[in-house]
Amino acid sequence: MTNPLYDKLFRSHAKNAKPFLYLSDGKILTYKDFITSSSKMANALIKLGLKPGDRLAIQVEKSPEMLTIYAACAQAGIIFLPLNTAYTVNELLYFIEDSRACIFICDENISEEASKKTSHLNIKIETLNANGTGSLIDLALTSSELFDPVDRNQDDLAALLYTSGTTGKSKGAMLTQSNLLSNGQTLMNEWRFTKDDTLLHALPLFHTHGLFVATNVVLAAGASMVFLPKFDVEAIINNLPNSTSIMGVPTFYTRLLDDSRFTKTLVSHMCLFISGSAPLLSETHIQFEKRTGHRILERYGMTETNMNTSNPYHGERRAGTVGFPLPGVEIKITNSENNELVEQGSIGQIEVRGENVFKGYWNMPEKTKAELRDDGFFITGDLGKFDEDGYLHIVGRDKDLIISGGYNIYPKELEIFLDQQKCVLESAVIGVPHDDFGETPLALIVPQEGKRPNLTQITENIEKEIARFKHPRQLIVIENLPRNTMGKVQKNLLREQYKNIFEVSKS
User: Fold this and answer.
1) 3-state secondary structure (DSSP) of residue 257
2) How many domains would you assign to the chain?
3) Per-residue pLDDT reduced to its tens digit, 404-431
4) For 177-192, b where at least 16 C-beta lie within 10 A, e where not — what string?
5) Three-state DSSP class for 392?
6) Bridge partners of residue 438, in order along the sequence
7) Structural domain range at position 434
8) CATH number, residue 447
9) Which of 152, 164, 471, 490 could anchor a disulfide with 482, C-beta 3.0 to 4.6 Å?
């Protein structure tokens, strides 16, 4: 029997006594012990009546046991569905019902409420707590450590990941064995991971970044992980000396730069700092390199595709870009109106094709057809351009495009300009209703700590440098920008909050 994902990422380590996870309590979990635990967990899932192709929904705090369940699902041919720990039980109902999950694993603190809310469904509720206890663990402990992996092929589903749902109903992206395996192996090669590396892992596991990028790269390389429950500056500082790489979101790096202990000496041995899920400010790039001597590597990916591009391991890591297409990945920039290629350097919609691209949206054939072309290209919804050297620039989201008085305005262009202004830490530009123009740009500005931007001066600078039709109707200083768990600015919340600021005329 063959099971490509399990064979390549997990089974190959069955007799490996090397450390896989260095845990925050000082314990070490070897590869061998991890694989043994995953086999016991696979047997537990079978005891509960799960079979290949069934969906397992899980909302638990980050733990080694959660990783064990991921491995067990791969082993048993069960589709793994991790869910954001921030979701309420009411919110979880949508994902459980839509996926038709056969089992829901959660913390015992919500298990009773979850049981009541799902009583009309044919679903089992099992518990897994942050400390590694729970009904599922009890069942696994009494199960056999021998499990013959289920026969699967490259095109079989391995995971179901739901998009954030910022533009409406969340969509379940169907990810195959091939999607996950090919991307993990490609990134291992591109980022030069080896068995001698130790990744400092402080990302959540319900998101593709922490699970299918970080974890799969480590598994593919046979490397080790310092496995932290969450991002904590103190814990990061303490564990950097024992790590060779870290994957994070921009917040990781800005907070580290705020700590005086984060020095060139502390990270002189490090090989790689990777950032994604949200764009890094150019100023962060500059400050980081000046402080550490290292250049952060930015990459570009999404739920539906895992990783698409990366700045080079060797060569210029260009700030404001996400680098080049990964091997085996094709990217083209097209005009959304006629789907034709745009000229070099022009902005258009980003389309991606490759083994990394998902199979489609769960139970949404029309949405799949609209976004996944017959020729395999996926319409990402992102806007971008290639510069003269082939680096990809992400300009914004299609939904963020502002059409004011018939003119297209790309928020990212304004945000880059605003972020460069004196005393400005970061900004967000959104389109809000306007009775004359349909919609108009509004700029939200977050000041640097202890500073207050001169809005009059910024306005004058805008008037000098930016075409008039792009000018924000108003500049507003706010304390911070709302972000999701991966650090992306939630512009949908800002649009809702400020939708009436220029009250559309009713006359």
Assistant:
1) helix
2) 2
3) 866 778 788 899 899 999 999 999 999 9
4) bbbbbbbbbbbbebbe
5) strand
6) 434
7) 401-497
8) 3.30.300.30
9) 490
